[in-house]
Amino acid sequence: MSKFSNEAKELLEFIGGKENVAAVSHCVTRMRFVLNDDAKADVDKIKNIKSVKGTFTQAGQFQVIIGNEVSTFYNEFVKISGVDGVSKDEAKKSARQNMSLLQRMISHLGEIFAPLIPAIVVGGLILGFRNVIGDIKLLQDGTKALTEVSQFWAGVHHFLWLIGEAIFFFLPVGITWSISKKMGTTQILGIVLGLTLVSPQLLNAYAVAGGAEAPVWDFGFTQIKMIGYQAQVIPAILAGFTLANLEIRLKKIVPGYISMILVPFLSLVPTVLLAHTVLGPIGWKIGSVISSVVYAGLTSAFGWLFAAVFGFGYAPLVITGLHHMTTAIDLQLISEIGGTNLWPMIALSNIAQGSAVWAMVYLNKNDEEEKQVSIPAAISCYLGVTEPAMFGINLKYVYPFLAAMIGSAIAGVISVGGGVLANSVGVGGIPGILSIQPQHMFTFFLAMVAAVGIPFGLTVFFNKKNITFTKK
Description:
Layout: H1 5-14, E1 21-26, E2 30-35, H2 43-47, E3 54-58, E4 61-65, H3 70-81, H4 88-95, H5 101-113, H6 117-134, H7 146-149, H8 151-169, H9 171-183, H10 187-198, E5 203-204, H11 205-209, E6 216-218, E7 223-225, E8 227-228, H12 234-253, H13 256-299, H14 303-320, H15 324-337, H16 343-363, H17 368-382, H18 387-397, H19 399-417, H20 441-464
Parallel strand pairs: 5-8
Antiparallel strand pairs: 1-2, 2-4, 3-4, 6-7
């Protein structure tokens, strides 16, 4: 008998039995259920199972947090229940039957960027390191950067741009590939499409916006401007979905014996043409409007209010999955204005959630079992991963979650009020300071102090005053 046998039986019972499970899969730390009737799941009893760290519903899936041994627990659950496990992709497809149109759109957006996150994080770290050695005047009484006094570090600074440029400048290639992968279409066509958006022969759209005259493809009866969409998100998304949907439809009507020849040709060529005549210009305009609105809101006289609302509400956005939208907005802001004032607030929210957990560690310092969950969760928060802390600790007790939201809001106001901009999206939490533009690092540090101190202090205060925000 497995050590999880009894707990797996309990979970099956409390989830509503085998007949209530439409699909089940698992990821790194969670069991993911698509239930026929969510109301049949007894959440309180499930949370009382010893191995369960917490539960939540997101993207049409009822998710049960198990931790690092989730694969062992999952195997035992499948064995006991007789429910056939499915892949995460199949579970997501099944889950969409329970989603609204907006939820499905957010789910798609999240699935596009999820495979790109490792590269974006690496790119953020690299640009952050280049910040430190190339832009901060640390030497000779604060007059010179490391690259100005050392040829070695100057060479490192120059070399690292090769990777940073590949990740961010050529981001459309990753986006169109990710869409083709997600949609189950030909991935190499997605890559080729992305390359046609960033080809060196194309004039950068930013140069065109600055007044440069773009060369043209001259067809005699008409001309098409040779404009590239380097670092652009929305043109790549529009083009990627157009290619994938066109390929899917063509496969249904083109006879199999000529499909290998006609489908790639009739999918790719029209999509590239549309990308450079319709989708690219429209996507560029949409992206410019979105970034302008967000930037104007954060730099206006009411920017502090926008910052407070975003800082307070970002953690709940993570629960709903809506936070996936912020990656696209961040990248658009970086490409449009050379930095993002949104990303620093996300990093501060990570820190705030972790600080609330540290307060719970302090309050439960004699509870060894609680500390085994809380300490790793707090550390992961400070490194930008908030899920274990939010679902395993803060939401469980409620008042630490609220304390973290308040701290995040105040830290966000400090950040936006000080005009803090990040050069890139990178690792969240404390390492996020590496992504901050050098002239704003001190202000961001002050915001970090607020994100640490306020949630910690409020969590302890709420506990001591028995203010738990839960029904007695």
